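Troubleshooting entry. The earlier prediction with zinc ion gave an output that would not parse, so I re-checked the input for stray whitespace and re-submitted. Clean input:
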Amino acid sequence: MDNIDSSKGLNDFLPIQDWFNEMHAKNTSQKVRAVLKSKGESGISLANNVPYGYKKDENDKTKWVIDEPSAEVVKEIYNLFIQGHGTFEIARILTKRNIMTPAEYFISVGRKFPSKLQEFKHQWNPTTVASILDRQEYIGDTVNFKYTIRSYKDKTKVPIPKEDWQIFKNTHEPIIGEYTWNIAQQLRNNRKKPTRSGKKSIFSGLLFCNDCGKKMYFQSPVTDLNAKDHYRCSSYKKNIDLCTSHWITDEVLQSLVLENIQKVVSYMKNYEDLFIKEQLAKSSQDEQKQIAKNKKEFEQAKKRITEIDNLFMHIYEDNISGKITDERFRNLSFNYDKEQKELKAKIEQLSKEINNTEKKTTNLTQFISNVKKYTEITELTPEILNELIEKILVHQAEKINGKKVQEIDIYYRGVGIISFPVSLEDMTMVIEKMLNERITA
Ligand SMILES: [Zn+2]
């Protein structure tokens, strides 16, 4: 089965005869790749260059250890990003602070680096910043098989789709916590260009339309001084037939969110145990069912992959013995290959979902410790929002009894919507009553 390269499409399959002729020439190259493959599959990094922030372990050259000075810069880049600075801005800040670029740093500590710099200008590039924000290695994982070469003849590097990467958890000490890294990834995926006025919304990447699920579009009017900063559904902005406006001003949104966050902080401060209990109990039954369903589908997909391997072996033998034509063989192998690829993607997705639900407790602990960082929140900042909130869904405003009512759903990071069963004042009364009953009983 090793001869089936899953990145191949129908047209890449050689006619069988040519395929055999190529086999000999390919052999040596395949040995090298086979060795690389087994090395990569054992979780040893295949990267020749250790990423910025790490260095090779003196005692074991296959291991990475944290390189303090550069790791500090990596941490600072993530901090700045979560505080709401974009990659261009971060590059500018680092340059202004006279921080050596990775290339300059490598040269300064005598690490091998391909280019020879004439002078150190500390000129940071937004692409460098972006690549640091995208590297999963910083949370302690080894990521192998991100690229392949086209063939043994053509050594062009070809990127491999993310779902086919092999990821090994906790192979070295992390520089960035997983929670922080996830925030950075979400911000990277939802990044947005600043508006024409140059103003950036503090909710950037967090706001979505409740009905169509698309991003809310931020607008800071430049010409009309009386107009307020506001958001509209981006589908509606594109075409008013696609959705409704979901119009909300930045001012209203900020006050709604601030009020909710303040409640959470206060809830947590006074009733932490109750909060934990409630969160863990929340929809746990539904979740158990979902996990069981996912695990079953996962097993089925794995079984089918093995079946396909066997089917392929058969058609391959049938083709050699002349039972099926080359063309038929190509078609069948193309279909099997396609199905197998789809199954692999499904397995990846399912295992992610299974892991996610099992990670819930860790998320909750992380969320609580993040909330506790703030004893009092009087103003919203991108940092607070990014750290605590995963997304906000904006509903269409409605008129109820002549009054305009607009709802928003705030999904807190790792815990979802936090509902307050009764108002905090009521809750204090309930608890006092309970205590009194216990005393009198
Ligand atoms: Zn919409």
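This one parsed fine. The mean pLDDT is 80.
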